Amino acid sequence: MVQTTRAVTVRTRGAGLYEITRELKDTISASGVQSGLVTVFCRHTSCSLLIQENADPDVRADLQEFFSRLAPHGMAWVTHTTEGPDDMPAHIRAALTQTSISIPILNTLAALGTWQGLYLFEHRAAPHERSVIFHVIGEA
Amino acid sequence: MVQTTRAVTVRTRGAGLYEITRELKDTISASGVQSGLVTVFCRHTSCSLLIQENADPDVRADLQEFFSRLAPHGMAWVTHTTEGPDDMPAHIRAALTQTSISIPILNTLAALGTWQGLYLFEHRAAPHERSVIFHVIGEA
Amino acid sequence: MVQTTRAVTVRTRGAGLYEITRELKDTISASGVQSGLVTVFCRHTSCSLLIQENADPDVRADLQEFFSRLAPHGMAWVTHTTEGPDDMPAHIRAALTQTSISIPILNTLAALGTWQGLYLFEHRAAPHERSVIFHVIGEA
Which residues form a coiled coil (chains A, B, C) (predicted)? Predict the structure, then answer.
């Protein structure tokens, strides 16, 4: 059994879904693991992770719209407003999605379904540098 | 340290929670692992995973009802409608729940609490064949 | 490769976020693992796990308020009411957050971001004894 860890920086340009499936695949390839488990971890509380459809970009736009409506900017009852109107909604949207996702590795590949892509879900309005960590464990 | 992977097909008959706790337990038994970790992964973006109460079926019905109200069919602003009115709500409900869940294994058993069952949460209206992958790692 | 498992009891005093970052760190230290993966698992269906901001306590209060509004006590359509008005909302809030979270371990430490803390999110109104299990795997 072997393991490896890799940190990846994702540069975001405002709220939305940024695909990191290639980074996932490259990490598995570089690890030499043939069968095992890869875990993705997001080191922030105002962006998150999501596996979602990689085909029609409308799905990502609609997901973004849904979360914008569920936890909109300017909710009157919010007390944490020091970093602006998009700050607390960002924490809420992160809480509603994922901080970590684990995916089995089969025959050197992530066992993603045909339509699954891995995304960093940015919830802040301004550009950010985000840090994601991949951990791979398994048999080479 | 040993590991094993198993793919399971779940046949769904419309939106709702389908219990797969037996498949989880059988996978652990077959692996021979006495202590370790099992990870469940759902290979779709319009169904998901959930650990929820396995006692009163009303809990599952109420969960289904809640998500039906939170992301209902026919939201006017949705643009991704090619596969019907239940398609985008299914992606949203999947995003709000889990694509992967990891459970420790203690003394040959999944460390589930007394009232915890593992469910595939189908969000589409029509029957589907769903693929779930179990990865087990630990000491035999 | 080595692994270890530890069960921790968390005593809650009503709905809210209870930090368990210290328990996470202590578990990793005691395991002797230098690089690897730690998985946290919550053995209940009416409380859950969340990684969120550990700086301004207003963030936790606002998160609590958001979920109280999204799935409030006394929703008229709920059928599972045997354990009181806070029971089904607790299951719903648990479904919307996490039952398990996995975090890479780098240089003997959980790879948490600067502002990330690990929390048990209690959704019931009365005090409860909650059980959380940590599983650590990696290289000593």
Answer: none
